[in-house]
Amino acid sequence: MSKVHNFSAGPCILPKEVLTKASEAVINFNNLDLSLIEISHRSKDFVEVMDWATSLVKELLNVPEGYSVIFLQGGASTQFLMVAYNLLTENGTGAYLNTGTWASKAIKEAEILGTVKVLASSEDKNFNYIPKGYSIPLDADYLHITSNNTIFGTQVKEFPECPVTLVCDMSSDIFSRKINVSDFGLIYAGAQKNMGPAGATMVIIKDEILGKVGRAIPSMLNYQIHIKKESMYNTPPVFAVYVSMLTLEWLKDVGGVEAIQKVNNAKAELIYGEIDRNPLFRGIVAEEDRSTMNATFVLEDESMNDAFNQALSDARINGLKGHRSVGGFRASMYNALPLESVQVLVDVMSNFRQ
Ligand SMILES: *Cc1c(COP(=O)(O)O)cnc(C)c1O
């Protein structure tokens, strides 16, 4: 049987060899005759996994001195709250850019703890663009942005020049393109979009931004505690960290972030080229803000949806249904999705016209 082309938005495609190695480790890890998921997280074998995963993050993203990398649980959604707990001061302001569902949720959590100022929002057009030209208050504790809006298919192409601590939810485009970590105070990402299975959340933090709020922070929500304990304050999500480590090794083997960025750009060009060329389809976000990770589009004539879905399923294309808040279609093209799968999709779209 021909292979399935997996365009799922998250959890999503992982490299085949990663899945093979992960399944082997579940049965017999490091020739211990024990499973990865039945040994102590404090054993030498697992501590090595955590250390190697952490150093791969540092290497692949060129994380400079003065930053810590940790793996936590609770998904990116817990980071919405942790960011505010750790960075929003009692009389200060957290500045936010509202670019979609996830950003809105981050705003809602921060409002529990203090004053939030939404600098700009694209809600007026169902989040189909990235607001620009807003000004950042110099006295804000931080500015929180979402680099890639997974649901709507927009992506920040140029990060704002930010006079205050820049915090970024990079859940759905981390490791997909080169970034300059030193431009950010804090970066977080749930693993399940571009790094591994659900269950681990990676956080990169500039150490000096911490310890400035007066409030008591519950231990599990305190970055400083997790940093000090090297992601082992409590039992880490061992399987998710291990598979993330394997995915990062895979990324390193294929040439790192710079190499994968070229492939990602080629995939995006291919699909958006077809969306623009084919009169049956229409992209739904502003062209300059189109995401390289999640391409959203609709059929001009929605009565053709069923027929198109049938054509997708005949070609064994999985996961193309748009998010319920947007409708239409969404092709998620994370790092592990080969160019070949995008070509198959583009062929289906182009044949559908005939
Ligand atoms: C998926 C996603 C989230 C939510 O992640 P969870 O791990 O489910 O909490 C947050 N932000 C962005 C940008 C996402 O893509």
Explain what this protein looks like in three dimensions.
By secondary structure, the chain is of the alpha/beta class. The chain has two domains: 237 residues, Aspartate Aminotransferase, domain 2 (3-Layer(aba) Sandwich), CATH 3.40.640; 97 residues, Aspartate Aminotransferase, domain 1, CATH 3.90.1150. Helix content is 35%, strand content 17%. The strands form four sheets. It has a seven-stranded mixed β-sheet, sandwiched between helices. A three-stranded antiparallel β-sheet has the order 11-12-14, with helices on one face. A two-stranded parallel sheet has the order 1-13. The two termini are 26 Å apart. 43% of the residues are buried. The mean pLDDT is 97. Bound molecules: pyridoxal-5'-phosphate (PLP).
